[in-house]
Every structure is written in C-alpha cells, then in structure tokens.
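As noted in the main text, all predictions were made from sequence alone. Below is one such record, for ABC transmembrane type-1 domain-containing protein.
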Amino acid sequence: MKGTRKIIPHRKCGVILKKYWMLYCCIGVFAVVSIVFGVYPMICSIFYSFFKTNTILTEPVFVGLGNYMKLFRDSYFWDSLKVTLLFTALSVPLNMVAALLLAQLLDYKGICRGAQLIFKLAIFIPFITPDVVSAVVWKHFFNSNGAMNSLLEILGLSPLGWLTEANLAIGVLAFVELWKHVGLYTIIFLTNYQLIDRSMYEAATTDGANGWQTYAYITLPSLKPAFMLNAVYAIIQFLKTYTVSRIITFGGPNYATNFLSYYAYSKYEKMDFGSATAIATFLFLLIALLTLVGSAVGRRLNETK
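Prediction:
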C-alpha cells in the first residue's frame, strides 16, 4: 500500500501533463519571454542604478546611492515628477468618467446589437493600434499647419499653438491618451454592467425608486470591482507615459510634458546610464507603491457593504 501511495501522485501528474501539455507549453513560453525581456532587464536596471557609467565600453564604478542623491538634488527631476503626477491626476478621472459614460451608452437596450458591435470596435481599435503610429498621426493633426488649425481657419477662428503652448500641449497629450486607452476601460465597465442582477432594478422600481436612485444605490456600488481594476491600471499606465511625449512634443514646450519616463530616456541619450536607471527604478517603486495602496483600498471597499 505504501508503494502504491507513492506511485499514484506521479501517475496523476503524468496524466495531467499529457492532457494539458499545450497549456503548459504556452505558459512556459510566456514565462521565458517575461523573464528574458521583463524580469532580467528590470533587475539589471536596478543593479546599474548603483553604478556610474557613461559608455558601454568603460568599467562601471560603484557609487552606492550616489545616483539617487544626485537625482534628488536635480530640480529638473522634481519638475518632471510634478508634471507626471499632474498628468496622471488629470488623465485617470477623465478616462474613468468617459469610459463609464460610454459603457452606459453601450448598455442601453435601445441600441441594436449590430450598432453595439460597431461602437465597441470603434472605441477598442485605438487600444490595439501601435503607440508610435497613433502618436505620429496625432502629431500631424495638431501641428501648426495641421488639420486642427485648418479646421479653425475654415470656421473663421485663429489657429492655436497646440504643441507650442504648455497648457495646450498637456491637454493634447491627455486627449490622445484618452482616445488610446478609454476603449479598454469601457469594455471592463461594460462587462461589469452586464453582470449586475437585473432583478434588483425591478425591485427598486417597484419600491418607487427613480432612475438616479437606482443608478446611485445599485449601479455604482455594483461597479466597484471595475472601478478599482480600471483605476489601478490607469494609474500604472499614465505614470509611465512615454510614447506621446517622445513622438509628439519631445518633452516640451519648456519641459511641460517632460514626464519621468521621457526624462530617463533623455539621460540615456546623454549616456548617463546611472541616472537613467535611477529614474527608472524610482518610477518602478512609485508605481509599485501606488498599486499596492490602490489594491488595499479596493479590497477594503469591496469588503464594505
């Protein structure tokens, strides 16, 4: 009996592996790719943030926390951090509200299924469009001689410096990022919408509740999981905003869109690899901290009735 007990688990493992070998192969490939192109570069980045090196040919010199001390004395770093946090604080609520409204529209029963499918594709396609391609298109759209100013001239209005004025430039990038990401948040909200028990609405209507009351006391509380998932993902996404700044504004005008990720890249361009990796490590820790806080808040809200 003892021998049998030792063999049975091995046989079960063999059966499971034989049955789900394709699944384990896919997971294995994904794990290898994640380690090679995700975990390993991240570990190397953190490691080199403690060294001073200006070229790939010179031997790195260990400086401990020197790169971080240099970073915290850099006024441009603090300006970049402020711009990044302000952009995130603007973009997250904007995307949440827009996604919620779009999800509410798509959940409206008066729209036929064909129209719903077209609308879903229209708002989701930007999310799967390559970042560089969409950024180049929007850059030409908002250029001084682009389509937006041409439209203003047709309407008899003066053209604006969409990419040359600080406040307008940050607004343009917020709009482009909204166009890019709102589709994903909308689909998540819509999925949560469709999981709500419709009998609760019928009971609320029977009790005399109006539309706003049912929305405030049934719909919004039921959307807590989607709110927290979208909020955490949006915070991560907008804190690490890079492509639009790199392609559309190059961190300008006057460093108005010099986000932390772009500032790290500018240090890398100057071959100041120690400072670049220090900024990247700081951004990683900031995102990890805010993600943990957001997850903790989400769990607490989901536990409250």
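Residues 215 and 221 are 9 Å apart (CA to CA). Residues 75-106 form the longest helix (32 residues). These features were considered when defining construct boundaries for the mutagenesis experiments described in Section 2.9.
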